């Protein structure tokens, strides 16, 4: 489930100019199908989208497809550049660049074109990509009022793109670098300081922390998969829950306050008990639980009444802001931030294959 953050992310990565023109010598159906698959990978299914234009891009060999995505700010443009043959796709803004310049200079030129002059930036790393002749550049950009953001540029022989790259299987090839960047913003020990694990013994090599909203169905499903893993590897896996109620969920905050004050061994069961309920206050939460014959211990009520629950939520939100968490569940694991629970990677780590 994505938060309001996807709106700002698209606004930063996508272009704002609509282009129209006749279709070129490419397979329109093939390009459209590829573009739709990328849009499905980019946005939640509940976000309405519509295609605006399709035309040959200024850079030879690419097709420019413009969509709009519905948000509470209206329709936001999303620009895709699909390679003729429909194997690789960029989401973002593509620029025609001087082919005589070296790759580093092209990356700087693309960033200069895309970002306002006052946005300070630092190049963190560069590497080759699976797309032959294209190199990736990861920058940290200081965005006013939003703080540091990872921004990725790609350069080919005669073009530069600021945005994201998707492979033939629709995998987001930009994510790995940005996951590492997000993970580097917070130290693991700082993240879990003072917390007790909800899953596992706490002293294992394989451990994770999951940002979770009490009203997030995807978080519930992730918890179910985690509990299945704990059944298999209980002594080898440790997990923490960081409660992050989203503004879009008006009933989530009172639940999260109570959950943040609840003993770790009871949080999972309480999460289940509160699923689908609509409290407007922590007192409503207590009433809902009492109606289910779930006891709320006195220390929990005292913790909430003293403001400790709210303080813990603010602490978790501070970590989320630093790591640019824009969706839940988001999981800090192995020094990286993942959208969703990375079950396969956790299994590989448990098997000693990571």
From TrEMBL:
Organism superkingdom: Bacteria
Domain Thioredoxin-like fold: 196-340
Stored InterPro entries: Thiol:disulfide_interchange, Thioredoxin-like_fold, Thioredoxin-like_sf
A Pfam family assignment: Thioredoxin_4
UniProt entry keywords in alphabetical sequence: Isomerase, Signal
The keyword Transport is assigned to this record: no
MF-aspect GO terms: isomerase activity
Protein name: Protein-disulfide isomerase
